[in-house]
Predict the structure.
Amino acid sequence: MSKYDFLIVGAGLYGAAFARLATDGGYKCLVIDRRAHVAGNVYTENVGGINVHKYGAHIFHTSDREVWDFANKFAEFNRYTNTVVANFKGEIYSMPFNMYTFNKMWGVITPEEARKKLDEQIASVKIAEPKNLEEQALSLIGPDIYNKLIKGYTEKQWGRKATELPAFIIKRLPVRLTYNNNYFNDSFQGIPVGGYTKWIENMLEGIEVRTNTDFLENREELTKLADKIIYSGMIDEFYGYSLGTLEYRSLRFETEYMPDTDDYQGNAVVNYTDAETPFTRIIEHKHFEFGTGKGTAVTREYPAEWKKGDEPYYPLNNDRNNDLYRKYEELASKDEQVRFGGRLGKYKYYDMDDTIADAAADYKKITE
Ligand code: UDP
């Protein structure tokens, strides 16, 4: 008899959601994490009253009522709506692509004028079936916007030519012929009041958690503790990279605290969409919570090539990596004890709502 039903590796959102569901279902769980804290990459740290998103900005958004209800059990969500400012060499544009963007780019005022301009732009590139991110963007929005707001940002972010990237990445962004500049199309959106760390701590309430505990370093001993292992780390690392190494994109964050500046940029997110600026965006954390107090904290986000030992932030879902992932998945399907989940375990560009839905679906599948 094992001591636990589930050993959950990773105390991030996937691990915490799975642990909550399993515990409420009567299963005994142990959650471990190699970091010194819970909450994975949604971790926030309160610095002088400002919740700093330490591993990149997170804005919760979903259209899934069940996922929203689940999220709201562990925190109250504020009414933050993400609206992004793009700075291209000092020219300011509204993101995602909406009437404010088109007005600034072409001087058009009505949706009809914008449609006409977009159609001309799209027709000028003559792409029937987009095969990569560049072709997808050009056929969606045309060359003017592609060159100022997409190409530079995308190639910095991914460290690859836009012609070598999968088209689906750009489909994350809405294109609207209205003056609605909400970054997301979802029905529900907000930031947990009190920070994401508290949200995850509440989700893990009453569940045994061990931080500073590396599964791979204590594999044998930890494996014996539970009937099943729920693993939210990198699947290729779990298998010792035996079939090859999956590629990820990493990030480096530079956070600056400015006690004498109350408002640095007037918005939570400003993207620098030219190729030359080395960072992709600057986050001013207080704006996520409508902060009006003294001082501010900003984080510059520098994309970085990933190598073993670095933090993997984004899976690089091109054909080569997706094929390799499928091989790992096949290997995993023969192993009764372990199941993989979350952005790293599933090797998918999941948002937070996808991650919760993934945990709920996995829990259901494993326990039915
Ligand atoms: N993107 C862009 N310009 C921008 C913002 C985004 O070209 O100003 C593209 C870029 O390729 C990026 C993708 O859209 O990787 C998805 O952006 P999103 O904001 O969803 O990325 P995340 O917040 O997950 O990093």
